[in-house]
User: Which sequence fits this backbone?
């Protein structure tokens, strides 16, 4: 029924699941302590883009049609130890104050897609929890004052509460993760949490002053890309991998899912770093031009630096001298740094698409293709 060549709305394919996402996340975050409850749920109030859960759900559907691993035993049908996910049980333990027998039952999409397992739906929620935890911590580190069009949690509640709320989210994400009863998936998502910190450390290390006016080298871009993988693409790629694993996909499919996520994640962050130069704070819902202010040299600046060695002195002193930020910004916009960043993002986006090109045709696969396309077209 679908017109070939017409763009699909990736959201429509998993709309039923997405409709329950925020509500389910808020249930996972319930705390008997009212102020913790409030800070923990704070970033779930404004609608985020929910890109990570959207990708996980689409990947779950798209890989459903792919070959299965020989050893796979569907936890929903296997006998013996009960490895199925009982949302009611999760809710009862995680949030004893809620009424476990009604709350989840009513809101579970009965008419949801049967090719998405409850464990994969839960994985989608876990990825958003980990992402939101990283935003709570990130806004403290970056001294950010706004997020998703509202005051940031650190501004609203202070640094201590924002950090603790982030830790709380990671704790609840870990409980939900353990309940999936899949050691490989637990290992993947735990590695993501470590990777987020490693990425942030690589970035911090890069904001140390170096008075010798460093020279641009190929390693400069490699370091940036490695950092970008750790801070952004690790979560997307490993959750894609986990989604395929939970569905019992064979090794080639699991690898393809990972490759899609890795390349899409890199494209996504490159575009993010580009928008920091090309869009206003009002358009982004968070401060624009923030990276230079933080002393960070991201892709647009690195490409400009390659053409304009004089940027080295500014990079070395982390754009701290009066007028540095503005000067660097002008040089970047004069160079084709923004254009080269966009071109590199496009390369990664195309790699993401070719990673899953051999998947059987489906609406979910079209949705993943559209996500890769939209990632480089987005302006917020
Ligand atoms: C946003 O980047 C931040 C991240 C993608 C990850 C940050 C990671 C940490 C703070 C490590 C600790 C986290 C955990 C979960 C243990 P950005 O500042 O470039 O983006 P922004 O413009 O949205 O602020
Ligand atoms: Mg930030
Ligand atoms: Mg940051």
Assistant:
């Amino acid at each position: 029924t679908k017109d070939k060549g017409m763009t699909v709305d990736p959201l429509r394919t998993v709309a039923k699941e997405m409709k329950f996402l925020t509500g389910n996340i808020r249930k996972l975050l319930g705390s008997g302590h009212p102020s913790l409850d409030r800070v923990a749920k704070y970033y779930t109030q404004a609608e985020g883009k929910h890109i990570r859960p959207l990708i996980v759900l689409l990947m779950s559907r798209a890989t459903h049609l792919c070959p299965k691993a020989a050893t796979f035993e569907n936890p929903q049908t296997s006998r013996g130890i009960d490895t199925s996910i009982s949302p009611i049980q999760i809710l009862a333990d995680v949030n004893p104050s809620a009424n476990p027998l009604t709350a989840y039952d009513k809101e579970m999409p009965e008419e949801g897609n049967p090719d998405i397992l409850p464990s994969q739906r839960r994985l989608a929620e876990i990825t958003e929890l980990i992402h939101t935890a990283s935003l709570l911590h990130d806004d403290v580190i970056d001294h950010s004052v706004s997020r998703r069009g509202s005051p940031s949690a650190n501004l609203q509640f202070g640094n201590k509460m924002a950090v603790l709320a982030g830790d709380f989210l990671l704790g609840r994400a870990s409980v939900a993760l353990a309940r999936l009863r899949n050691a490989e998936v637990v290992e993947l998502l735990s590695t993501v949490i470590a990777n987020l910190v490693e990425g942030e450390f690589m970035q911090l290390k890069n904001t140390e002053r170096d008075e010798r006016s460093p020279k641009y080298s190929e390693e400069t871009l490699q370091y940036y890309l490695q950092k970008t993988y750790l801070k952004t693409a690790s979560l997307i790629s490993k959750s894609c991998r986990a989604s395929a694993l939970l569905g019992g996909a064979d090794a080639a499919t699991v690898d393809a899912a990972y490759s899609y996520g890795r390349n899409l994640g890199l494209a996504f962050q490159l575009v993010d770093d580009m928008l920091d130069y090309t869009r206003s704070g009002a358009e982004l819902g968070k401060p624009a031009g923030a990276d230079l202010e933080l002393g960070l040299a991201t892709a647009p600046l690195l490409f400009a630096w390659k053409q304009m060695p004089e940027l080295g002195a500014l990079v070395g002193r982390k754009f701290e001298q009066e007028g540095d930020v503005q000067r660097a910004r002008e040089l970047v916009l004069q160079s084709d740094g923004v254009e080269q960043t966009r071109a590199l993002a496009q390369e990664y986006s195309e790699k993401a698409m070719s990673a899953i090109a051999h998947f059987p045709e489906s609406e979910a696969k079209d949705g993943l293709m559209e996500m890769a396309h939209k990632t480089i077209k987005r302006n917020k």
Observations:
- The chain is about 65% helix and 0% strand.
- Strands lie at 146-147, 150-151.
- The radius of gyration is 21 Å.
